[in-house]
Amino acid sequence: MSARLSLPRLSFRWQITLLGAVVVVLFVAVLIAALAALQYTKSAVLNNEKRRLFEAASELARNYVNNAKSASQVKGLSSVDLGLVSSAETTSEISQSALQKVEGIGGGFYKSDGELLLGYTPAANRGTENVPVLGVGAAHEDVQPAILEAARNAANSHMPAERVLTGGNDFFLIEAAPIGNENSQWGSAWTIERLQSLPGANRLRAYLITVALGVAALVCVLLTLGVVRNLQAGVRKIESSLQDLEWDLTSQIPMGSDPEEIERIAQAINRLGASLRENIEREKQIEDQLRHSERLAALGRLVAGVAHEVRNPLATIRLRVQMAQREARIPRVDESCAIALEEIERLNGMVNRLLNFARPVRFQPEPTSLKQLTEQRLNRFSDNAQKNGIHFITSFPEDGTLLPIDQSKMAQVFDNVIQNAIEAMSESGGTLWVSVTSTVKSVSGTDKVRVEFRDTGNGISSSMISRVFDPFFTTKPSGTGLGLSICHEFVRAHGGEIQVESAEGDGTRVRIILPVHDKVPETIRVS
């Protein structure tokens, strides 16, 4: 069921339209009242009754002629003989048939030959009155001479004739219509009506019309006040909401009982508040990213310097240990040198990673299907996952959307995320859900592709989730803390973003969102 329509809910346009319509109706009512006042004057009433009476007489004449034509056709005559239906009985039937449905009008026929009044039928509201064969009834005996005069004039002149008789408060209206033509004249049809009083003297109707017009004017005034009140209430509501919005961008203007224009303004203000909140949050994110980048840049310079300083002595140490291993004759010394070389290689690998973190990285973007790339990286870890009781569940789109990305760098990102998920579930096993969703609309309206990894591991505490992209931050005993930091920079270099959601004991969700049409720079510095 639709909501109940009420005046406050209508738009101002419709309220003003309604008010204009009421004004038009009021104007039309004034015209109708004026016409009604004219109509109910004495002369107007008489003219209307004369017209009605003449129409009845003309109908009576047409019925007589039609019956005469039918009778002539039955007799096989080539021309119409108007005298065939001139008997008293036939004329009575014709007049009764024509006048029985006309209120307050009596009538009959006049025959020129003999100047006879035939077929008299009293008015329909006269009840059971004795109807004579010739002449008129008792109700019209006093005016029979006037009826004969009007009927004779119509028959002789071949034109309609009328008479108006007055007697006290009563009026007798007589109308006569000729039957026949100049070549075949039979007589005429006449009708009579008695008016006992004229409605022009009744003032009650005029009073009622005046009251109705006054009520209509009052309704127009009330509607005008209602429109103004609704407008004022809407403006006050918007002013109050704007004041609240100055202090709290999360405040919303309630809607549901205002005109259409006010609701559109409220919706625009609500959208403006939401847009301001999003912009402020985005600015905070940009500021955090800038501070993060500044820290990374400073840390990268420091790491590069430390790595260079460590790498040269480390090379000298490895050379000396190798020389000592070749010259050693004691097995224990040879074993110690081998262990030292392994540790030196481990330190050298760490130094290389630090140098890779600090030096610029070259990108080689090419059209790549994320679906195929994700499947390849999962296959690489399938054996390790099976050993640890971990199952992969994938959901990939049917279409193969191609993105301009660096396959090796994005493979490194996926490998790092998959490896972290496997290590988080290695103790008790679990499930890793991987999905690729294409053409995800962003806030700016651009098409993006989302790759999501969700595991059932131990998760990350809320106090540490904000630091997962910081360099050298790790929760693993043997980790370097550079994996997710490098992944973060690689994804950002592709114009995308990486998001991590986690709760302790509830697993971790990693989303990688990449634009479809953005270009990847050829070289970036991972800092």
Please explain how this structure is put together.
The structure is a single chain. This protein has 527 residues and is of the alpha+beta class. The chain has helices spanning 12-39, 42-75, 88-99, 144-157, 204-247, 260-327, 331-358, 370-380, 382-387, 407-424, 483-493; strands at residues 105-111, 116-121, 161-167, 170-180, 185-195, 360-362, 366-369, 390-395, 402-405, 430-441, 447-454, 497-502, 508-515, 523-525. 52% of the residues lie in helices and 18% in strands. The strands form 4 sheets. It has a 5-stranded antiparallel sheet with strand order 2-1-5-4-3. Helix 2 (42-75) crosses helix 3, helix 6 packs antiparallel against helix 7 (331-358) and helix 8 packs across helix 10. The longest helix is centred in the middle third of the chain and has 68 residues, at 260-327. It starts with 11 loop residues before the first helix and ends with a strand.
The radius of gyration over CA amounts to 54 Å
| Spatial order of strands in the largest sheet | 2-1-5-4-3
Mean pLDDT comes to: 77
Q: Give the number of helices.
A: 11
Largest sheet: 5 strands, antiparallel
Name the structural class: alpha+beta
The span between the termini is 61 Å
Percent range for helical residues?
40-55%
Oligomer: single chain
Q: What's the β-strand tally?
A: 14
Jot down its keywords.
rod-shaped; single chain; 11 helices; disordered N terminus; 527 residues; five-stranded mixed beta sheet; disordered C terminus; five-stranded antiparallel beta sheet; alpha+beta
